[in-house]
Amino acid sequence: MQKQKRKQYTAELKAKIVKEILREEKTVSQLSAEYGIHSSQLYKWRDQALAGFPGLFDDQSEKAQAVKEAEWEKEREALYAEIGRLTTEKLWLEKKSRTLFKER
Q1: Is the model's pTM score more than 0.85?
Q2: Of the four, 4, 20, 78, 100, which is 20 to 30 A from 84 by CA?
Q3: Element of type H or E holding 98
Q4: Mapping DSSP to helix (H, G, I), strand (E, B) and coil, where does residue 102 land?
Q5: Which of 25, 13, 18, 9 is CA-nearest to residue 43?
Q6: How does 58-89 read in b/e, with b if 16+ C-beta sit within 10 Å?
């Protein structure tokens, strides 16, 4: 039995459907039947869009995103440094273990 792959919808399609929901020219049930998408999914998309509206007009969110990206970059650099240190340590231990086992 083959697993069914989840349907993935583009952001453009989601935006189009949410616009239609907000226009209220058709019911969510009608849109659900028209697009073949369950009504609960349409409600989730609508709620997600409405939750994101305040952030569209807020400069603070852009600043907060820039701060988060700077923190992620700093963390990424620290992780790469740690990976380098651990790789060097591993290679050194491998080299030492080979010389110890050859002596026996």
Answers
A1: no
A2: 100
A3: helix 59-103
A4: helix
A5: 18
A6: eeeeeeeeeeeeeeeeeeeeeeeeeeeeeeee
- Delimit the domains of the chain by residue range: 9-57, 59-104
Residues 6+ apart with CB under 8 A from 33: none
Residue 18 has pLDDT above 90, yes or no: yes
- Token pair, residue 63, equals 């600043």
3-state helix, strand, coil split of the chain in percent (to 5) is 80, 0, 20
8 A C-beta contact, residue 18 and residue 45: yes
- Tell me the chain's radius of gyration from C-alpha atoms: 26
Q: Encode pLDDT of 22-55 as tens digits.
A: 999 999 999 999 999 999 999 999 999 999 887 7
Query: Check: CATH 1.10.287 for 9-57?
Result: no
